[in-house]
Amino acid sequence: MRKIQQPDDRNGVYGASILIALARPHCKFLAGWMVPAEGASTRDMADLEDRIYSVVGSSVKDPEVKADLKSLGWMNRRIAVSEDGTIQILLRLPTLLHPSLDELKLSVKKVAEAEIKDWASSKGIRTDIRANIEAIATKPVPWLVKDEEDQKELESRLGPGLANVTHTIGVYSCKGGVGKSTIAVNLAYELARLGGRIGLLDLDVYGPSLPVLVKPHDPAVRKSPVGAGMVYPIEHEGVKLLSLGFVSAKSGVPGSGEDGGASVLRGPMAGKVVTQLLKGTDWGDLDILILDLPPGTGDVQLTVCQDIDMSGAVGVTTPSKLAITDAKKGIGMFSSLGIPTLAMVENMAYFDCNGTKHFPFGKGFPEFLKEDNSNMKIHPDDVCQLPISELTNTANDSGLPLSIARPDNASNELLALEKLAKIVSRELFRLPFTIEVEDSHVTFEDGDEKFSLSSIQLSKDKNSLLVRAFSEGGALQKRLPPQILRNRDPRTGELLEGVDESPGTNANDMVTIYKATSTVKPDVSADNVSADRVEKKAKVGYEVTWSDGAKFIYSQRAIAKAVGGVIEID
User: For residues 484 and 505, what is the distance between their CA atoms, to the nearest angstrom?
Assistant: First the structure.
């Protein structure tokens, strides 16, 4: 289980308590200024504070990640009390987009009030003290960052603008005209409504649509002092926005400005524009940055996926068989890049007539998944169906997204968008806790010896790759044909969709380095691809640049599994 890195508390250990006290004018530190229970001394109240922190922190487990609050670092040490005697307990969460926040608060409240009752009984004090639970979000850090070294490496690779963005996700479609940008905009505002710190970047540089769908009160793009050539995003209704359409037409970039006309960009030029929009923007503190990608699977998608560590993606399609076929290709492409599709949106799926849903194009994607979901890795419940809707169209034309306007007669649309936002927030919240902790181990079929997962090393050796693992007793080495690693999900190490490794390309030839009789067996060269460069990326993994131009960061888990390792979590 991974402990989320907490930000530097510049106010000391009491900073969060000061925050809650300032937020509530009649709230004071429990062990400091006042005694809420008659007959209790200041020392008694300090004892109560310690007991609440200890008992609640160790016994309440987060319902999503199944770890106690103290080990997660989410339980604030100091506790405050208001003048009416209510104890204020503060939770410091990595984000307020917690899928089970109400359940977590209720659990903390029950345990805290039970401990207060036991404490009062042990002191012979009669009291009816109640607990109120508040939650705040700490400063966001990229989900793959574990320490200062990782943070420095990320900033050197992505620049300062993305240094405090926890997750980046893409919204994609493999056909134009399916409502992808509409979904991206409404997803952003729905996530913000649920408490998230959200940004939205329109990367459809060939036809930016964000300035049409959203009309900011102040559309000016201003310079940021963070770095040369960097700008601030536009903030509107709680979401940070940027699009080539908001950039001044005087910038010289084809298609810039709201009335910039058609954008005619060759692949390399499009890639440069995308990189500038993404890395040249000072995004500040964000839980999620949503990228509205252009339709298809071209240069822009590859540039983004290879430049940054995307946490996931959302696919958009319509119910037609042709659109679903293309959607499968999109899921396959993102999967091959190690990026899971978190949810699928089936837009214009049905229309509602007198309370009855009619599906003129068939039941579409959910039914397809029930029939054949062998390689899709998407649950039918993670498909969101939106109706054919005049309300959505009107909202688009007015520049006031449906998730902001929230008309009373748009319940079907809003429920579907809320479902989508909750799926995305659930999957992203759980993601950091699916990574093994550093003391996890890997074993190989050749023996029972345990090797530290964090010790896995990858290097290039002529036409093949070498994997080394270390344990207390020594080390071992395996030669890994490049094609085997290329056929694996860079994050999980699972075999990619549609890949069938032939018997002649296994990676189970082991060399135990510390044995004098060891010999290196002949290399098995990959047929179609080779690794041009291998570079360590802090504790995230190893970046491999392939001979066909592709570039992926492989986790140590993926590397270990590619050579037949079995992961054991301690």
Answer: 7
